Amino acid sequence: MAHRSAPPATAAERDQRPLDIDVMRACARRLLAEDAELPTPDELETLTLQLRGHINLLMPEVEQVASRLPYDDIPRYCALACIGEARKKLSLEPSPGLHGGIAFARRLSRVVHALCDHLENLGGGHA
Predict the structure, then answer these.
(1) Domain ranges of the chain
(2) What CA dihedral angle connects 15, 59, 52 and 23, to 10 degrees?
(3) Nearest CA to 105 among 87, 93, 88, 117?
(4) Contact residues for 119 (Cβ-Cβ < 8 A; gap 6+)
(5) Whole-prediction pTM value?
(6) Does the CA dihedral 34-89-79-16 come out positive or negative?
(7) Which of 7-21, 36-50, 74-88 has the lowest mean pLDDT?
(8) 10, 61, 81, 126: most buried, per Cβ within 10 A?
């Protein structure tokens, strides 16, 4: 017996879902707080995947909002530079061991915060 599931969302449907910036920032704060509790290896793997996912969702949103600005606009340039840095970070892999993974996840956390800042500063933030 074949199982049926809902059809995948179209590109237009995906674009209509607002980003939850507060959730993304909360995820990023998990490792950046001064009193942050070190995650277990399984928690770290999950957190790293979440951060990568947030970055992949944020980049096109920031790029779309930045593209509406004049070509020589400084906030536009800064936002696009941040996207370039985010792509570089996503192409990297963590150093071996728990501490290498935590350091990598912290870098991704900073990228999430920066992209959220650019999105909000350029007027594209969603609740």
Answers:
(1) 19-121
(2) -60
(3) 93
(4) 19, 21, 58, 61, 62, 65, 125
(5) 0.83
(6) negative
(7) 7-21
(8) 61
Q: Tell me: the pLDDT tens digits for 49-104?
A: 999 999 999 999 999 999 999 999 999 999 999 999 999 999 999 999 999 999 99
Phi/psi for 86 (5° steps) reads: -60, -40
DSSP 17: S
Assigned token pair, 78: 């800064």
Q: For residues 22 and 120, is the Cβ–Cβ distance under 8 A?
A: no
Q: What percent of the chain has pLDDT over 70?
A: 84
User: What is the Cα–Cα distance from 106 to 79, expressed in whole angstroms?
Assistant: 20
Q: What is the predicted pLDDT for the residue at 50?
A: 97
Sheet strands (E) in 7-121: none
